[in-house]
Amino acid sequence: MKKYPPFVYLIGLLFVVNLLWMNHSVSLWDEDEAAYAGFGMTMLETGDWVEPAYQWSVIHRKTPFHFWSVALSYKLFGINEFALRIPSVLAILLTCWFVFLLGRPLFGQKNAGRAAIILATSIQLPLMGKIALTDASLLLFQTIGVLSLLNYLYRPSWKWNASLWFAMAMGILVKGPPIILLIGGMWLLLAIFHPKRKHLIGTHPWVFGWLAIAPFAAWCYASYSQDVLLWEQAGKDIPFAEWWQEEDNGHKIHLLPFLWEWYVLRRIGGSVLGQSGFWGYHLVVLTVAFLTWLPFWFLTLKASFKSFFKPSDKVLILSVWLAIGWLFWEFMSSKLPSYSMGAQPALALLMALQIAELETQEEDSKMLNFGLALYAFIFSIVSIALPILGVYLLGDWTLVYLLPMSLVLLVLLIKVLKTRKNTEQLFQYTAIFGGLFMFLLWTCVSPVIEQSSIKSFDKIVATAYQESGENKAARLIFTGLDIKQQKISLLVYAEQQFGAYEEMHAPEAMQAFLENEAVVLVIGQDAIEPLQKAFQKAKIPFEAKKVLHRSTDHALQSHDFWVIGNVERID
């Protein structure tokens, strides 16, 4: 077994700890993660592994791979936040491993290893491992597919072709078109510009491409068959084609028409939910993603743009990767930070090559010095501003978490700056800083966020459980929730704790409260005044517990909840 330096084991351990740390105690993030949690729960409850379905989650439906992995994780580890995030943790771990394993034949062991370390200690990639989104799994299959294609380009082999098309098939099941755009676009550019373009013929996309689409096609057929059955059960009053295109609240009801309209037509022609941005949006996103690697970032950018005009052999293939994985998305109207994630392994590999080149230079690099200066400035500001903002926004209690984090970051930052004359040491301490920064982020910042009123939905359900006398059989009723209070995580926690929930208007909720059975009302802002009057009219004290909530999609304005149970009254 090959021995690696202690530094590699330290970073590996830190990476694994970062991916798993606090995953059990950080509550669900709305909207996507909570919706995916609901999809996984529904699949286990109903046995329907074809159609992702959950209340308030219509626009979050996607192709099924990620929801299958969530449901399987629930089956193995129980329904909880830790199990929900296991598929993303594994996907990010494997992404870094395959950057090393598949990048090694192309770029050498040292460069591939450095690239994997850069990704593991960056910002966005580890974050994607701690939130149960589809992007982590997609990035895994994009990375395997692209590196398999590039390996085939230099050393044609059946194993590279098999892994290429396997990754393509799985990536399509994860999220549909993005992996086709990335690998298909790269195949075309390499076929035009690369000297070894003839080798690409051996990948036989005109044959294996259809095989890669087959699992997705089988799932589409299963979904279509279910819709036909539903149409027949509905009585066939209107033609199937018309029934299949029906809408509710501006969205297609049935899955396949919805996916085509929402994820293809709308995003080609514009954006959805205001998810647009300026040209250069993804440059900003990628800069933030590699913020912990800012000392080497500007060297990498310079090499990226320079390589488009005078590329070396290996830099050419990375340039093609960047052209499709990054620049392509700059021209799209629809923009999200995750779109350009597919380019991050290419940037990490290019950064590793620049670090190797830097080791051979005797003179100081101006780009490196500029990156170091900006790096020191940004993280000094972060270290100083964190405790100040914590006290200003939330109170003195946040100093217990944020002040130690700031002190540790400043000490580490000084250590990084002291190594600036030695490239290898600078690389190592930058990696350690990045890994510890992410560890401190989850250890010190996430508890502050969890205790704040922006993450209150689990607390609302916990309060309701207390008000029920810890009776899981009690009726949990939501009433008068305004649009900013209708968050999917509230329903997920309600279903986990009580098994079921009901939604009622205020008069019906009051009537249920007066019945001789255990009832807990969770009252939103739209029903608080009518219910207070109803309680007064019924001569019942309104002794509801108020749970503070500030909406992150409404400028942190208050959208508070009130929770009241009738257990004491009926006893």
Summary keywords:
single chain, 571 residues, mainly alpha, D-Maltodextrin-Binding Protein, domain 2, 3 domains, five-stranded mixed sheet, two-stranded antiparallel sheet, 24 helices, globular
Detailed description of the structure:
- Residues 62-219 form the Glycosyltransferase RgtA/B/C/D-like domain.
- One of its GO terms (biological process) is response to iron(III) ion.
- The chain crosses the membrane at residues 7-24, 82-102, 136-154, 166-193, 205-224, 279-303, 315-332, 338-356, 368-393, 399-417, 429-449.
- This protein is mainly α.
- It has 3 domains: 6-357, no CATH class; 361-451; 457-570, D-Maltodextrin-Binding Protein, domain 2 (3-Layer(aba) Sandwich).
- The mean pLDDT is 94.
- A hairpin with a 2-residue loop joins β1 and β2.
- The protein contains 24 helices and 7 strands.
* Largest β-sheet summary: 5 strands, mixed
Number of domains: 3
Rg computed from alpha carbons, rounded to a whole number of angstroms: 26 Å
Helix content: 55-70%
Strand order of the largest sheet: 4-3-5-7-6
Strand content: under 5%
User: What coarse outline follows from CA principal-axis ratios?
Assistant: globular
Output mean pLDDT.
94
Unreliable spans: none
GO biological process, one term: response to iron(III) ion
Subcellular location: Cell membrane
Domain Glycosyltransferase RgtA/B/C/D-like: 62-219
Transmembrane segments: 7-24, 82-102, 136-154, 166-193, 205-224, 279-303, 315-332, 338-356, 368-393, 399-417, 429-449
Question: How would you summarize what this structure contains?
Answer:
It contains 24 helices and 7 strands.
